Amino acid sequence: MSLKFSEKAHRYWMDGKPVRGATTLIGNGIPKPALMPWACKLIAEWVEANPLEIERLRASENRYELVNTLKGLPNQKRDTAGLRGTAIHDMGEKYLAGLEIEIPEEHESEVMGLARFIEDMKLVPMIVEKSLGNREHWYSGRVDFIGTSPFLNDGEPVLIDWKTSNNVYGDTALQCAAYARAEFWVTDEDPDTEHPMPDIAATYVAHITSSGVYLHPLAANQVEIDKHFTDFLHAAHTAKNAETRKGYLGEPIYTPEGFKK
Predict the structure, then answer these.
(1) Domain limits of the chain?
(2) pTM score, whole prediction
């Protein structure tokens, strides 16, 4: 067994062992100070907009129903956005493969914008929606697009990450660097056959919005990719050592009963 990916659980197994994805390591290794204010604002806006539902929940015999409902709103919002992103990614993959796609009305502007971007940039795919692995640093990932464009880096292979979120951030550079420095890639149909990674000249993030696609450069060359990869390794180290840090705290040597020799 080489590298297997469960789309439903969004989990990876490498050589039969669980392995964390690059995005999970980055998320657990780098603080996100904007996340808590966003969640508080989301809950406050929902409360303001749903007074009758709040009263219904407050009157429920289950004393925790109101708390659980409010607590779950950020995750619900995240999961809905994730389903939207997955759908757009899937349609983009099919378009690149030359397959016919049916575009739901709610995704029409984003998918049409992505199709226009692909055509305008004359993208030629090499690796699309495939799992990547790195044994040395023990991580995995799922790359959106590796390929070429006559308008990017003299037609050399580049890595582009599709993002359907409201905004894009610099942390994506770490994710793309981790993918660029993977040791191999596999197909879902044959996860035991490892294919070597091509040399990646640069990394980009394509922000897919209802008004079209905005392509942002991340790493302009391999030197910058290596720099971003070093940052990724720092984040991964912090994430992987979360359990170890719990052991840094010893038992109290002084209590209200006095000093323990």
Answers:
(1) 3-244
(2) 0.89
